[in-house]
């Protein structure tokens, strides 16, 4: 089997579908257009843009997205029913995800049906989509809990009928990366002709790891959302998957990562889901250094304590002065504020900084630092 390279991997970003599906999140049409334009401009090659069956408002948004003429392919989410697919066609869409519950748990307890019924639904919906010339991803909801032989059976049916790929969904976010790897590898081995897409959720904090494990196992498509927005604990974050593949796996997807922070902040605002400062890759303070050893190391050479250059995602390195600061950090921070502080002065001020910082329970801001310096100088003159 041919080794998969970075350029072969296609991000199918679903911020506008699974992302908006998060309880309590609604994007305006303008926000949807702007998110799609940004995703397109940074090189995301596929965008899952909504669920036409939801009604008129959603359909109009999808039509507006289709009329943007993006380079990215637009794909919609559909139940395996003709009306859903018809609604997608009417929105001017050329690619659909047709979703079917594939685990016995869901087939029996949610649908009150059996596997044969699921196969029939697939045949009917896929047949209709292919008659209409659509690109089709067959979505296996709850694939992680499904009997893998049943998934193989569905993939074989899909392949024979011209289905283009199978979406392996860890719908509940319950897999670990090792199991993900094994399952996707097995499917690749048994049905090598059909592309696999992985759709992972973050309920156990493993969405990114599982997405990457799926790719390492041979999946060529991966679902992401900006900031990891999505049902419950969310999906695999776009920025983490892209940077993880690049820096942990040496796979460059060719995405322009410099705008990740801009994109992330826009989506955080539009979704009214502010990000923690320590959010991997795009959090405001993930390149802030305070502790003496780390600040000193980073000043000697950033690669001592930074896995990648903050500029790569649109962030800046920041030295903070607080309880854990050491001398070089203090000197450098004052230099950035336009004040030359000697090593001796820095040592003396560190005592003050520690006590103020302990009282405030945080690091000191610029005004507080300058105030401290001024009072220090006054004392020194007296
Ligand atoms: Zn999902």
Walk me through the structure.
The chain has 382 residues and is an alpha/beta fold. Helix content is 45%, strand content 13%. The chain contains 15 helices and ten strands. It has helices at residues 15-19, 29-41, 56-66, 82-90, 104-109, 115-131, 148-160, 177-190, 207-216, 238-248, 260-270, 292-300, 327-336, 343-360, 366-381; strands at residues 10-13, 46-48, 73-79, 95-101, 135-141, 165-170, 195-200, 221-224, 288-289, 318-319. The strands form two sheets. An eight-stranded parallel beta barrel has the order 1-2-3-4-5-6-7-8, surrounded by six helices. Strands 9-10 form a two-stranded parallel ribbon. Strand 2, helix 3 and strand 3 (73-79) form a beta-alpha-beta unit. Helix 2 packs antiparallel against helix 11 and helix 8 (177-190) runs parallel beside helix 9 (207-216). The longest helix has 18 residues, at 343-360. The model has no long low-confidence stretch (mean pLDDT 96). It binds zinc ion. Residues 18, 171, 199, 201, 230-231 line the site of zinc ion.
Topology:
Layout: E1 10-13, H1 15-19, H2 29-41, E2 46-48, H3 56-66, E3 73-79, H4 82-90, E4 95-101, H5 104-109, H6 115-131, E5 135-141, H7 148-160, E6 165-170, H8 177-190, E7 195-200, H9 207-216, E8 221-224, H10 238-248, H11 260-270, E9 288-289, H12 292-300, E10 318-319, H13 327-336, H14 343-360, H15 366-381
Helix pairs in contact: 2-11, 6-7, 8-9, 9-10, 12-13, 13-14
This protein binds zinc ion.
Residues 18, 171, 199, 201, 230-231 line the site of zinc ion (ZN).
């Amino acid at each position: 089997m041919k080794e998969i390279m970075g350029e072969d991997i296609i991000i199918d970003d679903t911020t506008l579908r699974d992302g908006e599906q998060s309880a309590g999140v609604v994007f305006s049409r303008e926000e949807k257009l702007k998110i799609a334009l940004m995703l397109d401009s940074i090189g995301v090659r596929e965008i899952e843009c909504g669920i036409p069956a939801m009604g008129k408002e959603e359909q109009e948004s999808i039509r507006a997205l289709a009329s943007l003429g993006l380079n990215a392919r637009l794909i919609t989410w559909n139940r395996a029913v003709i009306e859903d697919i018809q609604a997608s066609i009417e929105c001017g869409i050329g690619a659909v995800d047709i979703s079917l519950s594939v685990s016995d748990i869901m087939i029996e307890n949610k649908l009150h049906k059996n596997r044969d019924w699921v196969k029939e639904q697939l045949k009917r919906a896929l047949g209709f989509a292919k008659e209409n010339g659509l690109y089709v991803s067959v979505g296996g909801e709850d694939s992680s809990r499904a009997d893998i032989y049943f998934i193989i059976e569905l993939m074989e049916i899909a392949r024979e009928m011209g289905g283009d790929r199978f979406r392996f969904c860890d719908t509940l976010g319950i897999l670990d990366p090792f199991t993900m790897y094994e399952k996707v590898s097995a499917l690749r081995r048994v049905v090598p002709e059909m592309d696999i897409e992985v759709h992972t959720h973050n309920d156990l904090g493993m969405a990114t790891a599982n997405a990457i494990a799926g790719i390492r196992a041979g999946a060529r498509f991966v679902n992401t959302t900006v900031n990891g927005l999505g049902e419950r604990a969310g999906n695999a974050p776009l920025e983490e998957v892209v940077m993880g593949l690049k820096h942990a796996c040496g796979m460059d997807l060719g995405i322009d990562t410099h705008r990740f922070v801009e994109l992330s902040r826009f989506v955080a605002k539009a979704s009214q889901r502010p990000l923690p400062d320590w959010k991997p890759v795009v959090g405001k303070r993930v390149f802030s250094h305070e502790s003496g050893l780390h600040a000193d190391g980073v000043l000697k050479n950033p690669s001592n304590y930074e896995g990648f250059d903050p500029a790569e995602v649109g962030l800046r390195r920041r030295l903070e002065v607080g309880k854990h600061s050491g001398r070089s950090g203090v000197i450098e921070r004052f230099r950035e504020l336009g004040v030359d502080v000697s090593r001796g002065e820095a040592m003396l001020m560190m005592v003050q900084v520690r006590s103020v910082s302990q009282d405030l329970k945080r690091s000191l801001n610029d005004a507080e630092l300058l105030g401290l310096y001024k009072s220090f100088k006054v004392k020194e003159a007296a």
